[in-house]
Design a protein that fits this description.
Pathway: One-carbon metabolism; methylamine degradation. This protein is mainly alpha-helical. Helices cover about 35% and strands about 0% of the residues. The longest helix has 14 residues, at about 1-15. The protein is globular and about 60 Å long. The model is unreliable at about 1-25 (pLDDT under 50).
């Protein structure tokens, strides 16, 4: 009975989400109080059992870029999450062990610290869990973690780095996961031109970009903010948005594999739109090459119109309106920060 009640409650909450999150009235003036909800909160959310320290971040950065943590010593986390490519890989679908094509696009890792669930299908709750999952996955990094811990334990530079980050805890899978998660929590985008405008700089956005934002939050026109909500431009929810791939034989069922609700068939996590312009192609299947393709898809109401999210309706935007929304999306990119690759212990 409790299980039935849980699923019924979840279903009701999904169906009513659009009504509950309808945007408030905005005054589209730089710095206006009605806009402040779009600013990311500080400090960065961190779990009590893994507080952020410079030593953990430094160690996590080395581990993130070290290809020796894969089964064939040729693939690191940064292989798919390349800082020069918006922490993505610009491929339609990710490449895993021995460069074999996987079934989903590489997910964004910007602002993971603000996520409630991780991965396209939300199968992992914490960044600490997420940090090790690709390493162990047979089709991804294909690593034997016990062997990798033995490897790290034999490298003096790593032993010292682990001791500095985790005094008296040693080199193990727990401390490795905590270090990588700490580094990932620092990958934050919160200083875009849009953020600057929200803070009060009238010159930060063009008139066309402001028009795009108005369309973005308009529940009748763009209706984008019903899922890409403040402050991180995501509702942390899962939605079927009518991609053509859902109409294929044996489609990827996404969130349904974790939550056996019909509504979750073909539903995938709403990604943040911060820095979105850096991470083409788009969608979990990499089927949209440009941001214009993305907005046109929504304007048309999707391609496979079965089992669509209740939040998703065709809005029939004009070409000019689509262009304005795209202009706004481009304003969500934070300024480029020079990134220094770590020196890996030998």
């Amino acid at each position: 009975m409790k299980t039935l009640l849980f699923y019924f409650t979840l279903l009701v909450s999904q169906l009513s989400y659009a009504a509950e999150t309808e945007p408030t009235d905005y005054t589209f003036i730089a710095g206006h109080p009605s806009l402040q909800q779009w600013l990311l909160p500080t400090p960065i959310p961190t779990p009590k059992d893994n507080p952020l320290t410079a030593e953990k971040v430094s160690l996590g950065k080395m581990l993130f870029f070290d290809p020796r943590l894969s089964g064939d010593n040729n693939m690191s986390c940064a292989t798919c999450h390349n800082p020069m490519l918006g922490w993505s890989d610009n491929l339609t679908v990710a490449r895993g062990y021995k460069s074999k094509a996987l079934t989903r696009a590489t997910p964004l890792i910007i602002n993971l610290a603000y996520n409630n669930l991780q991965m396209w299908d939300g199968r992992i709750k914490t960044l600490e869990e997420q940090a090790l999952a690709p390493m162990e996955a047979e089709l991804e990094m294909h690593a034997d973690l016990s062997q990798k811990i033995a490897l790290l334990s034999g490298i003096d530079g790593y032993v010292t780095a682990f001791d500095n980050a985790f005094p008296d805890q040693g080199v193990n899978t727990k401390t490795m996961a905590m270090a990588i998660a700490s580094f990932e929590r620092t990958l934050i985008s919160n200083n875009s031109r849009f953020d600057t405008w929200v803070k009060g700089d009238k010159s930060a956005l063009t008139a066309d970009e402001i028009s795009g934002f108005k369309l973005f939050v308009d529940p009748v026109k763009g209706n984008c903010a019903v899922c890409h909500s403040p402050p991180n431009f995501t509702d942390d929810g899962f939605h079927n948005i009518g991609l053509a791939s859902f109409g294929h034989d044996n489609p990827d069922l996404g969130r349904y594999n974790q939550r056996r609700l019909n509504l979750m068939k073909g539903a995938f996590k709403t990604p943040t739109l911060r820095d979105i312009a850096l991470s083409a192609p788009f969608f979990h299947d990499g089927s949209a090459q440009t941001l214009s393709d993305v907005v046109e898809h929504y304007s048309e109401g999707g391609k496979v119109k079965t089992n669509l999210s209740p939040n998703f309706t065709a809005n029939t935007l004009t070409p000019e309106e689509i262009a304005s929304i795209v202009s706004f999306l481009n304003a969500l990119t934070s300024p480029h920060k020079p990134f220094t690759l770590p020196t890996l212990p030998q």
